[in-house]
Amino acid sequence: RPDGSVRVLEPRGRVITDSDGRPVKMIGACHDVTERKKAEESVQRSRDQLRALHSHVAHLREEERIVLARELHDEIGQTMVAIQLHLSGLRAQDLPEEVAERLERASELVESVVQMGGRISTCLRPGVLDGLGLLTAIKCEVEEFGERSGLECELLLNVEKWDGDLDRATALYRILQESLTNVARHSGATRVWVSIEDEDGVIVLRVEDNGRGFEADRIQSSRNLGVLGMQERALAWGGTVSIQGVPDEGTTVVARIPV
Fold first, then answer.
1. FRET label pair with 256: which of 6, 74, 145, 243, CA 20 to 30 Å apart?
2. At a CB cut-off of 8 Å and minimum separation 6, what does 10 contact?
3. Shortest CA distance to 76 belongs to which of 127, 20, 119?
4. How much is the pTM?
5. By the 8 A CB rule, do 187 and 211 touch?
6. Which residues pair with 14 in a beta bridge?
7. For the segment 23-65, what is each residue's pLDDT rounded down to a tens digit?
């Protein structure tokens, strides 16, 4: 424009032909779509900012989990071990039978707390994910889930190695955990299939069960925090989570995260 401003135009037109189908002229017009273009760019900026916020929140959440897991292991764990040593020293003494039995019971309770703390610490931040990587962590999680739940689990790893960063690995691992938790709590399934593969730079995690299934509309409109959490974790890295269910046939969770 003469005033130096730039406008975005969208041309539209069509060819006019004669009775023999030969083009004779063209008519058309240009529409000013500057405002629409600005609105689209504004929406995209908002989406980018939201994605960055989700990523930041997910990172902070994992950092908090790491701190809590370390505190459980180092502080509470060591304190419980010290208590256990003191109890062992007392039990070694010549004490009345009733006192000895109470000390034995106290020792068992302390051991139970130590084991519980270890499980909670592992749940907060599995060491295998940091130490051995995503694929090994997924394998261990599926195996342990099968042992805990008694369900038949089948794992298919179509990815030779993980080339993504730890934050994306954590997102996929947490989505797997939540998916398996939902299977155990709600599905009534007897079998679970887990697969992970690389589709042109997008890691696809699929968790399928043969349980009672859910209607698709009910799943997508759900306010279940676990479902929302999975979607937020994927969104933080430009990914998606879709959930499809067929009543009396099962449910499938598919997470896609680019790497």
1. 145
2. 30, 31, 33
3. 119
4. 0.64
5. yes
6. 27
7. 989 898 988 888 888 888 888 888 777 777 776 777 777 777 7
